[in-house]
Amino acid sequence: KLHSDLDKGVGTVKYTLSGDGAGTVFTIDETTGDIHAIRSLDREEKPFYTLRAQAVDVDTKKPLEPESEFIIKVQDINDNEPKFLDGPYVASVPEMSPVGAYVLQVKATDADDPTYGNSARVVYSILQGQPYFSIDPKTGVIRTALPNMDREVKEQYQVLIQAKDMGGQLGGLAGTTTVNITLTDVNDNPPRFPKSIFHLKVPETSHVGSAIGRIRAVDPDFGKNAEIEYNIVPGDGGNLFDITTDEYTQEGVIKLKKPLDFETKKAYTFKVEASNLHLDHRFHSVGPFKDTATVKINVLDMDEPPVFSKPMYTMEVYEDTPVGTIIGAVTAQDLDAGSSSVRYFIDWKNDVDSYFTIDATEGTIATNELLDRESTAQYNFSVIASKVSNPLLTSKVNVIINVLDVNEFPPEISVPYETSVCENAKPGQVIQTITAADKDLSPAGQRFSFKLSSEASNKPNFTVHDYRNNTAGIETRRNGYSRRHQELYFLPVVIEDSSYPVQSSTNTLTIRVCRCDSDGTIQSCNVEAIFLPVGLSTGALIAILLCIVILLVIVVLYVALRRQKKKDTLMTSKEDIRDNVIHYDDEGGGEEDTQAFDIGALRNPKVIEDNKIRRDIKPDTLRFPRHRPPVEDNTDIRDFINQRLQENDVDPSAPPYDSLATYAYEGNGSVAESLSSIDSLTTEADQDYDYLSDWGPRFKILADMFGEEESYNPDKVT
């Protein structure tokens, strides 16, 4: 209620209200100043309102007093229950935890005013989950209420928590939430084998490293607490087997470390220990976290292939040993109870294996061909043994045969030597040091001896000094040598080896006498000092080849000169070759006669001449005509030329050397026909050339030439 001291109660004062909620939440009586709430208030929505009030004159509307401000506070009532804003909750606690172990803290929120009364004072309690867990009424902390809760017995718990305001008194509002609690695993259980003895049956043919059986120990724990490690306890048969853990199934996998043999041992017994990898020291007092079981393995008898007595056989044989000689044997046995017989054969892979044979029953190996150590020093092949009762069961062994050397090659001088001696050499002077080589496989300590042959030891020219270290020196025996008297000396040297039987060879050394200065430096020496070869020397071969080359050059030059002479006889002019067919010592027709003599125009295949005159010289006398078969019309030019060629070959009047005859075919149907008299049927004496004068100036030279010949003809009667 608002009231001004200036208000006399006569209605001259008016009250106004402004601020939070004025007109919407609160209203004022303008006359009395009473303030009323026009709707319900919610403290949780707005706990207080700030308003301003003023008294004004009704008539003048002027303020009678300054504006005053006041606050309206909403008083709380318990109209909100506690709420768990984070619920439902999930928590975990290790199994076997002691009483009072912390699990989780829950919290409920009450929207009421905590400063006014007990509306917001919350108390917690457990409605479901006892007697396993407890909760603090004030803090909401949940703890274990029973000792040794076992996860293997019960793993999941659901606890219902209540929060009630008004301090838990009657009439208070309450809210609930759920807490799901899981017991986590700890390693509180050792592994245990479900049975004390495990029986396994294993074939004796099982491969080393293969799994032959599985055993399993049970651990009720979970995760890494259930991981088990298996070990074989040292004892009977344990060294033949090994055991590992399957990380997925936690089973013990037994594997074979060594091969089994039923005939040697039929059963094995050993113990296996299973233990946890991750131990918890809090439970050591419970007892050892491991268990032991016995494993018995029975070996099953299987049909096995034969077994060789050795993993590999090495034999030796001398080269050139006679065919069929036994050099060794292989042995294989059937170790099964039936003890079947064994057959042997060589595993043929290439032609080398054919050098040996094997006895199928005894296993003896013999030579099948003559052996040569210098060709092949070692043979390597395989022998297969199979059971007679079951040929499919086979085994293989490697056989190495070393071919021993027999001293069959004599030693020889290792390299060709170029030996020379000075004319002014002194006695005892070493002119060459020689060494020897042997194709045989030289044994350790092989020695070669050097000496002169018996026929050379009596000559006073040279001697051989054996140094006893597989080398020797060639020494002079006299004072001075003469090239004019003897240029070459042939020294036979005998070389022997120390093997059995002793082999020797005679090697001829060629020594050339050379001219030297006073210091012994060679100044002239024409022929190389080499061992005497069979046949011609290198110098002789070079001389023969040089003579052949000189003869070939002479022949080529002679043929070239002969051809050049023929060309000089035929070619009398440097002009075109056609000008040399018929040569006339006449002057040309001048500038107008640009064609000179067109030889092609002088030939006409239609005209048959009886007299063929030489065309390579100017005709002096007339000859009787020679008849030849006429050329048919439309004859191919090639046939025409071939016919002329044959005629020229048999012509007795043709020159004795090669000449060029030119023919030209004018063709059929010429209006002027041929102007040549060479192929005319009549002789030149029967021709009348007076008509040439009527053909104009182009034919004047021709008319004058034939007119002169006609007047000159001695046979013509005037």
Automatic annotation (TrEMBL):
MF GO annotations: beta-catenin binding; cadherin binding; calcium ion binding
The gene coding this protein: Cdh12
Lineage: Eukaryota, Metazoa, Chordata, Craniata, Vertebrata
TM region positions: 530-561
Organism: Ptilorrhoa leucosticta
Domain Cadherin stretches: 4-84, 85-193, 194-308, 309-413, 413-531
Any single Gene Ontology cellular-component annotation: adherens junction
Gene3D superfamilies recorded: Cadherins, TCF3-CBD (Catenin binding domain)
Intracellular or extracellular location(s): Cell membrane
Function: Cadherins are calcium-dependent cell adhesion proteins. They preferentially interact with themselves in a homophilic manner in connecting cells; cadherins may thus contribute to the sorting of heterogeneous cell types.
Name the UniProt record assigns to this protein: Cadherin-12
Membrane topology designation: Single-pass type I membrane protein
GO biological processes: adherens junction organization; calcium-dependent cell-cell adhesion via plasma membrane cell adhesion molecules; cell migration; cell morphogenesis; cell-cell adhesion mediated by cadherin; cell-cell junction assembly; homophilic cell adhesion via plasma membrane adhesion molecules
SUPFAM superfamilies: Cadherin-like
The keyword Phosphoprotein is annotated on this UniProt entry: yes
InterPro entries: Cadherin, Cadherin-like_dom, Cadherin-like_sf, Cadherin_CS, Cadherin_Y-type_LIR, Catenin-bd_sf
SMART domains: CA
Entry keywords, A to Z: Calcium, Cell adhesion, Cell membrane, Cleavage on pair of basic residues, Glycoprotein, Membrane, Metal-binding, Phosphoprotein, Repeat, Signal, Transmembrane, Transmembrane helix
